Amino acid sequence: MLFLMQADLTGLSSPLGRIVIALGLLAAIVVAVRFLWENRNRR
């Protein structure tokens, strides 16, 4: 059980995994900003 807690089975702590997470967060922010910007202009 201790091995499962220490090992990163998903690989998300690797440099590539961190880049993927950062790109996903950036994409979510861009989508949210575009959504809010379009709704703001409709009023």
What is this entry, summarized?
The protein is 77% helix and 0% strand. With 43 residues, it is an all-alpha fold. The mean pLDDT is 82.
Please describe what this structure looks like:
With 43 residues, this protein is mainly alpha-helical. The protein has one domain (9-42). It is built from two helices and no strands. It is rod-shaped and about 50 Å long. The chain starts with a helix and ends with a helix. The mean pLDDT is 82.
Question: Could you give the topology of this structure?
Answer:
Layout: H1 2-6, H2 15-42
Helix content: over 70%
Number of helices: 2
Taken in chain order, the helices and strands follow as HH
Outline type = rod-shaped
Main sheet record: none
Specify the structural class: mainly alpha
Count of extended strands: 0
Note poorly predicted spans.
none
Transmembrane segments: 16-37
Keywords: Membrane, Transmembrane, Transmembrane helix
